[in-house]
Amino acid sequence: MESERARLHLETRLVHGDGPQPEGSRPTLPPLHLTTAFDFDSAERMEAVFAQQADDHYYSRMSNPTVEALERRITETLGAAGTVALASGMTAITVGLLNMLQSGDEVIASPYLFGGTYTLFTRVLSRLGIVTHFADPADPAAWEARIGPKTKALFMEAIANPAVVVPDFSVFQAIARRHGIPLVVDATLLTPYLYDAEAMGADLLMFSASKFLAGSASTISGLVVETGRFPWHDSPRFDFSQQKKAGQGAYLARLRKQMMSAIGPALSPFSAYLLLTGMETLPLRLEKQCDNTERVASFLREHPKVESVNYPGLPGHPAHEVTRRQFRGRFGSLLSFTLSGKAACFRFINALRLILRSANLGDTRTILLHPASTIYSTLWKHEQEETGVTDDLIRLSLGVEHPEDILADLEQALRAA
Ligand SMILES: *Cc1c(COP(=O)(O)O)cnc(C)c1O
Q1: Are residues 70 and 192 in the same domain?
Q2: What are the pLDDT digits (tens) for 352-370?
Q3: Are residues 291 and 275 in the same domain?
Q4: 93 and 25, same structural domain?
Q5: Residues 8 and 74 in one domain
Q6: Residue 410 and residue 309 share a domain
Q7: C-alpha 114 – ligand 1 centre gap (Å)
Q8: 271 C-alpha to center of ligand 1: Å?
Q9: Which of 90, 190, 233, 401 has the most CB atoms lying inside 10 A of its own CB?
């Protein structure tokens, strides 16, 4: 039965749940266990659970059956070793990094980052004595030159938001392998659907599941995924000796036992339920969103008021071939473009009638914003420039509407730009 399921396509597995189920009748959707705690049959059983001799659920800060069902679904979808679901994408990135870093450690990261992640590296981890060196993914030699004995992670976004930069993962997985350093990738913009394990070779994946998974952007959530490639338990760069028993699973064992307990970043079971059910239509939505984005990118490139378009789906984009090879032949559903300046951007944004002005992406609705005056407004000018954010830049996330309606709204609003 299991091997039969493994042969099914992802779209089929997503709507056919978790395999063998009880005889008789059963719910078609996973049950929602909206409970804080669990009642035990006996004191002995409780003792066994707390001594880690049994792994029943006991308190939803640590684990919960609905959250676990989501974690299993993600692990299976990605062909990974394990997943922990967390309260937000930023929680996943923060907790995922704190689980492996300590004071004195160094990270090499792409500067093309989501605003919260850039702030985490430059304002938060820096206060804890963790140093981040930024290096452009277009210059892998600069990354390699930065590697030292304290380097604990290479960090980048699969498709960087909002600069829409795509690193060549064949190069970065080789560097990571050569130096025995984990390759940590924020794969939010790929979603589990466009992720290709072989092409990317990531050791840890982090996702903001607030984007795309639930579909209609109903809930904040995040995921840390261990792909099972990195030997955490016997890497000389890390000390996972307390998790020796977990062997290859040492990284997630520590995250579950220590971080979930001590920091309390648990995902609500209700959010897990929304993600599980919403995820059933992820492939369908994403195919449509990618189609819409390719069409809109071509339209914008030809428009006289648009100065440049960042989208790897456009032939001639420097990452066109690399992106096609890495992400299952698709190019994602986020693009950015520039107008003549901030004033033109604001006139354009204010003239929109259908497209939403919203600080989100990956919704079923098409949404856009001006990054410099919103999500990146707390950064210094030179930091904005480092992350690829300029005053004339607009970020656009395509939804599932009919493309003609999106194009008509862009067309009429660009007249005001
Ligand atoms: C939104 C986003 C995050 C943060 O996720 P939240 O769920 O909003 O905390 C991190 N990385 C990327 C690439 C994002 O787009």
Answers
A1: yes
A2: 999 999 999 999 999 999 9
A3: no
A4: yes
A5: yes
A6: yes
A7: 7
A8: 16
A9: 190
